[in-house]
Design brief:
- This protein is mainly α and 438 residues long.
- It has one domain (15-434): Growth Hormone, Chain: A (Up-down Bundle).
- It is 79% helix and 0% strand.
- It contains 20 helices and no strands.
- The chain is globular, with a radius of gyration of 21 Å.
Amino acid sequence: MSEGTPSRRAERRVFAKAARRLIPFMGLLYVASFLDRVNISYAALRMNAAIHLGSEAYGLGAGIFFIGYFLFEVPSNLILERVGARLWIFRIMVTWGIVSMATAFVRERHAFYFLRFLLGAAEAGFFPGMVLYLTYWFPQRLRARFIAQFLAAVPLASAIGGPLSSLVLANFDGVRGLSGWQWLFLLEGLPSCFLGFCVLVVLPDGPNSARWLDENEKTLITSSLAGDARPVRTLRTAFLDRRIWMLSAVSFGIVTGLYGLGLWIPQMVASMGYSLFANGFVVAVPYTAGMVGMILWGYSSDLTRERTWHTAFAALIAAAGLTAAALTHRPTESVIALSVAAIGIYAALSTFWTLPPSFLGGTAAAGGVALVNSVGNLGGFIGPFLVGWLKATTKSYAAGMAALSFFLCLSAIMVLVLARYLSFEARAHMFDRYAPPA
């Protein structure tokens, strides 16, 4: 079917319609999610002294979120598949909003550790649930651009969160007897609870329950998705498939870089001499660059119908940016280097998340995507802790940046090893002898 045929034009219209209806709202949910996850990096500018956290203790607390996330990720996504996206995403958002706001009242490090673990448990299932949800609407050949548009919420949240957090820290300190960092948790946790109730109204469980699609549009989406080759469909088969575990390792390296940078970058910028007020605006620069880069990268991947080289090359760009950041000592050059790193990390994410759904279907998709994300998110524990430990040991961020570069390079190598099995869905089924029998 050529791109200009009436059928293909109708297909483009219906997917564009679905994207307009779903992705801005899904992105808004992820903005709230990511703000609640990483606002700790800005709160730390004042909170660490208030509750007596050193660099190593902060790194541990920031990263322990991902232990809770890891333990509850797969069960949460399996429940989402069973009860539907609306109800389960509603539950996730309300509980994580409440836990995030409760962090405002910690007084010592053990309570901080506990609430960070609880926040990870509450949020578990959100991101893989969203990736799974996108597979209900968009076929594999178009998915990179739509995943990139959804994931653009991550750098957008950081770009918005930086200036917003700086304003709260600077202007709310002492209001009603609370510190600025306490107001930060309260004000950025409340929208998650509100948006959770909006999910019940805005988000249909799938195309068949979308009132804004007519029957012809529903049929077109269903027939387009039917063309995707996803031979691994049982949970047992997915968990025994070596591709899943290799993809988990690739995700681990990328996420180590993502959070190793994201949860420390405000303190890195502060160490360059920028004021508390200017900090958030400077931090917004790398994230804005990352958002633009990942959207363009997703379109490039779809146009070329190539995934693994896009993922690997982006990871290497990120590693190069972090290496440059480790070597330079000038503020402007450091911000440019961190911007390059952010572009690479987010571009790698936009294409990486097309890979697991390319051969997973049914329950295997729910459990497999969650497994890849949960194992990968252990990098969210390792990255911040490693940077904190190396900072405490060397009194510099350079060693931490070099360590994050190493993990990103490993991810690039591993995804290229997988290239012959995962280059695109049209070829992936040729290599299913590497998966165990169902």
